[in-house]
Amino acid sequence: MKVGVLGSGDVGKSLARGFISRGHEVMVGTSDPPKLADFAREVNCQIGSFAETAAFGEMIALATRGRATPHIIEDAGKQKFSGKVVIDVTNPLVFGEGPPTLDPSGTDSGGEQNQRAIPDAKVVKAFNTVGAPLFVDPKLPGGPPTMFIAGDDADAKRAVADVCKAWGWEVADIGPIASARYLEAMCLAWVLYGFVSNDWSPHAFKMLKAT
Predict the structure, then answer these.
(1) Could you give the CA distance from residue 137 to residue 194 in angstroms, rounded to a whole number?
(2) Contact between residue 22 and residue 40 where contact means Cβ atoms under 8 Å apart
(3) Is 104 helix (H, G, I), strand (E, B) or coil?
(4) Which residues of 128-142 are buried (b: 16+ CB within 10 A; e: fewer)?
(5) What pLDDT is attached to residue 122?
(6) What is the pLDDT of residue 84?
(7) Between vectors from CA 61 to CA 83 and to CA 205, what angle results, nearest 5°?
(8) How distant, in Å, are the alpha carbons of 31, 36, 84, 189, 195 from that of 57?
């Protein structure tokens, strides 16, 4: 399928590589297309504006800065997301001295804000609880890690779960998009572990089951 990845940082590039590795056609959206010329040649993807990328994708991944994402959606054109599965990989992190914090948190989430911004899209929170280097084919001693997902549309969650499984993940569905509040908090737990231990080697969460 055609996949539009909005965002050209490490997260967006890792997503693009993942989709391309599984045979999908990818366009990466950025505010500065010329800066991605070398990357486009390296991975064989297209580069476009946010609006062009949103229009291109049959599935869309949001890999923009978390708190800026609703504004980027507005600029891209909300109608371009209508009816599409949208993977929300963002976290509303606030940076200052020391570890980041979340805003919003507790009673709202970036995932919910993004779903409200594009009410006719099917937003699924995923890939926000792990570092970009592990997105595809995560090889860890404890076996496949768990990708936790949340969203309101069951078919959309199945589509995103299929992506996760194709990339080597187990999947745990934790409910509606409101559960993004807890997935974004999991991101913060992932970050805090790195700060406290001073260990930024690849790490991920895994759900262990008795049966």
Answers:
(1) 22
(2) no
(3) coil
(4) bbbbbebbbebeeee
(5) 98
(6) 98
(7) 120
(8) 17, 18, 8, 32, 36
CB distance 138 to 145 below 8 Å: yes
Q: Is the pTM of this model over 0.90?
A: yes
CA geometry: angle 44, 50, 52, nearest 5 deg: 70
Give the pLDDT confidence of 151-207 residue by residue, as tens digits.
Answer: 999 999 999 999 999 999 999 999 999 999 999 999 999 999 999 999 989 999 999
The residue length of the chain stands at 211
Model confidence pLDDT, tens digit, residues 101-116: 999 999 999 999 999 9
Residue 211: which pLDDT band, with cuts at 50, 70 and 90?
confident
Is the CATH number of domain 2-197 3.90.950.10? no
Domain ranges of the chain: 2-197
CA distance linking residue 147 with residue 192, whole number of Å? 19
